[in-house]
């Protein structure tokens, strides 16, 4: 009886101690000031995780007038919408898939008949179609094989571009040993189209010079790609998944101009974050989630400057651009043009080959952006609307043109490729000019050849900076400046779920610091206004 009473007492005391310990941990975390730069997928997921971990002094500074970053669903009348940014869910076994799948909101990628036409409106003959399909299959097989590191030497992995290797293999398979060998037109058309299609995935504008094999060897994906159900927008799904924290944490239209490391003893805050209007926020930790494109374009954002290694990693990492042009017509046009139910119109350019290996020209003012257009396709979430994808240098060129010019060019393009002069002119263009947006500077990252040569990976972009004091044995307890975003995710770069995972990663890193440091390095959260310049 006594033994049992003692056991109950010990359990009771242990329970009190556990609650006290938990309360102390929560208390110490609630006083930690975290500022997140950017309210895209990475920033939102970081805030969600911090909230779960008990952090209460969190501010998200978003430069634009909306959340979501490069996830951007634009609403239209009658519950219609278009996805100006991300639209696919890449593979299973990752948080975004699990959340969307659990709600029954994923659908397979569309399959069906594809219609290919040349720039004169000509369809491929039966024999040409066989050669075309065979060449597309060969291209895909070679590309898929590049994810197997065992087929690549260390020199190829670091110093040879994807396209240099693939182009050589493709020519050998088609018994074209010399670069000046004449290609069957259908084969040339297939290769050119496949490259443009690949750039939708990679965003790399010049795979011959810029794309590393590590894009394929390092990226991890389990299963197929999916689309979000057409009744649900990508933006709403991202918000539902991540925005479980207080909405008051988010401040829109807050472009950050400077992130400064303060001098010990001269400020009650290890870091100060300054907005373009002069408003300042003190912080113990800052999570930078802006795109790699923004990091490339804003080297003066950090004071003091980032270490040379981090600056080189940013400079050498790849960040590209893809354009999505949504063309709304005054009446339905797709079924009239393609009564057989084609799911897309692939654009094939004749007498304008860029060779095998593929080697596009440098950007110049005489180029036509639509040479890099890939295909037209109907938009299931918006009536009377076609989506035209544009990749490579053409994506940057079209971002710089007026809406009227793009409407006229797209109209001419559709009439030429369908050989139908009665197609009505589109009445509305909806797009986001990602490369011209100062808060994006492009669409998503890719593993560049320059990074491979310098042995940089996304992990180098993720490396935190501005360490807190070390322990007596030289260990680092934590960091003031942290980095998240799809470009920092070693296994899932260029994806939304990669961004989500990166935000969670950095929140967990802050928790680890809080557990180790307790309140040793932080001043109380009261008295913030002493540091704020209005």
TrEMBL record:
Keyword hit for Signal: yes
GO molecular function: polyamine oxidase activity
Keyword Signal assigned: yes
Domain of life: Eukaryota
Signal peptide coordinates: 1-18
Domain Amine oxidase: 42-510
Gene3D superfamilies, alphabetized: 3.90.660.10, FAD/NAD(P)-binding domain
Keywords: Signal
InterPro entries linked: Amino_oxidase, FAD/NAD-bd_sf, Flavin_monoamine_oxidase
Pfam families from the UniProt entry: Amino_oxidase
Protein name: Peroxisomal N(1)-acetyl-spermine/spermidine oxidase
Organism of derivation: Hypsibius exemplaris (Freshwater tardigrade)
């Amino acid at each position: 009886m006594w033994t049992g009473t003692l056991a109950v007492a010990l359990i009771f005391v242990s329970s009190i101690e556990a609650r006290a310990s938990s309360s102390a941990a929560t208390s110490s975390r609630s006083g930690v000031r975290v500022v997140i730069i950017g309210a895209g997928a990475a920033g939102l997921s970081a805030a969600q995780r911090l909230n779960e971990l008990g952090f209460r002094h969190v501010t998200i500074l978003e430069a634009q007038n909306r959340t979501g970053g490069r996830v951007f669903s634009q609403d239209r009348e009658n519950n219609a919408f278009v996805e100006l940014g991300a639209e696919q869910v890449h593979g299973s076994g990752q948080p975004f898939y699990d959340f969307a799948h659990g709600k029954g909101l994923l659908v397979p990628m569309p399959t069906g008949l594809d219609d290919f036409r040349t720039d004169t409106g000509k369809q491929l003959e039966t024999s040409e179609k066989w050669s075309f399909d065979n060449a597309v299959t060969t291209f895909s097989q070679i590309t898929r094989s590049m994810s197997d590191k065992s087929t690549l030497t260390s020199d190829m992995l670091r110093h040879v571009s994807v396209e240099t290797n693939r182009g050589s293999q493709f020519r050998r398979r088609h018994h074209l040993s010399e670069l000046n060998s004449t290609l069957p037109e259908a084969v040339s058309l297939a290769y050119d189209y496949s490259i443009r299609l690949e750039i939708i995935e990679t965003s790399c504008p010049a795979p011959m010079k810029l794309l590393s094999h590590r894009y394929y060897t390092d990226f991890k994906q389990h299963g197929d790609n999916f689309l979000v159900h057409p009744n649900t927008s990508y933006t709403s799904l991202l918000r539902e998944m991540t925005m479980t924290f207080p909405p008051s944490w988010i401040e829109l239209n807050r472009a950050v101009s400077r992130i400064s490391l303060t001098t010990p003893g001269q400020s009650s805050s290890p870091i100060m974050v300054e907005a373009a209007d002069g408003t300042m926020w003190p912080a113990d930790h800052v999570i930078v989630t802006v795109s790699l494109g923004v990091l490339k374009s804003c080297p003066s954002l950090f004071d003091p400057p980032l270490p040379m290694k981090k600056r080189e990693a940013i400079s050498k990492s790849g960040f590209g651009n893809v354009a999505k042009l949504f063309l709304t017509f005054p009446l339905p046009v797709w079924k009239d043009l393609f009564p057989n139910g084609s799911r897309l119109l692939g654009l094939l350019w004749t007498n304008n080959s860029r060779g095998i290996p593929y080697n596009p020209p440098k950007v110049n003012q005489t180029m036509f952006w639509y040479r890099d257009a890939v295909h037209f396709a109907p938009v299931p979430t918006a009536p009377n609307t076609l989506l035209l994808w544009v990749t490579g240098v053409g994506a940057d060129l079209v971002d710089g043109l007026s809406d009227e010019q793009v409407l006229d060019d797209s109209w001419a393009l559709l009439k030429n490729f369908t050989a139908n002069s009665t197609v009505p002119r589109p009445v509305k263009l909806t797009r986001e000019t990602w490369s011209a947006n100062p808060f994006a500077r492009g669409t998503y990252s890719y593993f560049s050849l320059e990074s491979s040569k310098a042995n940089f990976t996304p992990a180098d972009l993720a490396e935190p900076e501005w360490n807190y004091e070390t322990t007596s044995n030289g260990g680092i307890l934590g960091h003031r400046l942290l980095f998240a975003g799809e470009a920092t995710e070693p296994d899932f770069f260029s994806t939304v779920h990669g961004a989500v995972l990166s935000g969670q990663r950095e929140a967990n890193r802050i928790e680890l610091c809080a557990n180790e440091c307790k309140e040793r390095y932080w001043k109380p959260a009261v008295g913030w206004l002493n540091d704020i310049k209005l």
